[in-house]
Amino acid sequence: MELKLVTANATDIDADAVVVLEWEGEPRPELEKSLADLYTSGEIKGKPNEFTLLHHLAGFKSRRTLIAGAGKREKFNPASLRKLAGAAVRHLKGKGIATLAFALDDAAGTPAHISAVAEGALLGGWEPDYLKTDKKEKDEPISAITIATRTADASLTAALEKGRVVAEAANLTRDIAVEPPNLLTPLALADRARKMSEACGLSFEVLDQDRMRQLGMGSLLGVAQGSDAPPAMIIMRYTPANATSKDHLGLVGKGVTFDTGGISIKPSEGMEKMKYDMAGGAAVIGAMQAIAHLKPSVAVTGIVPAVENMPGSNAQRPGDIVTSLSGKTIEILNTDAEGRLILADAITYAKQLGCTHLVDTATLTGAIVVALGHTSSGVFTNNDELLARWMTASVEAGENMWHMPLDDDYRDQLKTVYADIQNIGTRWGGACTAAMFLKEFAEDTPWVHVDVAGTAWLDDAKPSLAKGPTGVPLGTFVNLAMNWR
Ligand code: BES
Ligand code: MN
Ligand code: ZN
User: Considering only CA atoms, which of 453, 299, 437 is closest in space to residue 372?
Assistant: First the structure.
């Protein structure tokens, strides 16, 4: 997709369609005459997600004009513009539009707005239909998008580029996350990461099963042993040319390519959704692609433990006790609490690689979906300073995050007489006990855990996004690295 920035007025843009913002309660003076009926009848109010498509609007060069409700001016921010751009692209899909322009008022002309509009438009164009073979079933994609502002400078061009890089990375994450589990095995996931790393100059390594055995990753291997598909520990490294500190950020993402639950098998209804149990890993792979292009000043290592959780004849049993890479022993009481088991070894390994700060993300618990629904990811931490950076980065990315508790009291639920820790707590506070389990392995290293079980996948399309994988929390990962001081 071609994406460019120009300085122009909405009326002068030659495109198949031009999108114009309409503020709630502020009819546009230049349109008040030609749109008088629409304004007085209340058809155009300027509310978010209100779109009115007009043909050959008087005074406009473009064939069509999309009047896009932007809401109240004082509530408008880059996150609202990101959504508006995505929804506009989706509104215009399948209407024979090849070239599209966004005409931005001064109120929407900052670098953050430019990144957001580029991002939103590219994200809105993505569809989960790559395995449909009938082309007629698919909408013709928009081939070029122009963003028109009143004034232009170098900071806006850089912002456009950032938006493109982030959205393309998020769409890579979504491409990977949407792949069905028969095709996206742990080794296939490693292959996607390898191709990405080679294409953008990251150093890349995979630990295979034998290597993981030598190192002592008993917690991960216990999960993997129920499947014929071999596991992989995927490692992608970005080293800055001019590091401004000795900090080394580790991004860890759960890569369970399918989660049947293992011997503690899940009910069949809805089990197909467990193909997105590698969405955290896919977000790390996408984030590393964006980081390779945007070149932050901090070293970043992406780590994705990849396994399939199956109830094969060699599967681990409830009652098994495994020794993790950290040396800590874990009693398995439920084989469906597998994400924390593979993350435990990945977190320990990240520390062994020298990471000084860690963020992990995982579709870890159903409990976080009960707590926060599909709108916010749950965030847990052992370090308030890293948490503050994470939250700031998330606001810029337009990804909703909610800080959840992690008091020592939750640790009591993980006590067992047979081993150092057990892998599940009680029915209650399941997202918190899962996070507590991970904290045991992060130890004193500043760490943030992001449970995206409710936010990494949309069961229904939104106006701005197709159904399926969302890419969350890739945008926050990228901003965290870019803002690092
Ligand atoms: N992958 C699931 C969590 C999940 C649930 C992700 C719903 C997305 C949507 C995870 O491995 C799991 O099975 N967790 C169990 C833990 C329980 C056994 C303690 C859960 O949440 O039920
Ligand atoms: Mn599970
Ligand atoms: Zn899982």
Answer: 453
